Task: structure prediction
Amino acid sequence: MSTQIAVRLPDDVVAFLDRSVAAGVAPSRAALVSQALEREMRLQAALADARTLAGRGPDDDLDGLVRWTIDHLDVDR
Result:
């Protein structure tokens, strides 16, 4: 599902959108705006994950496995 909204953008941003579409970087203004917003959504989710991990400290469920692997894995280089 999609919803159409009206957004005011600065002239230089619209010019960038138009240049990008003309160059074939994106099929439309809407597609490029949508891609940028999806990238921002992923960034915000990653930052939230990083804050959560920072709050938990360095020890997690995999630390024991990593230590065991280092002690028991023999890799010839």
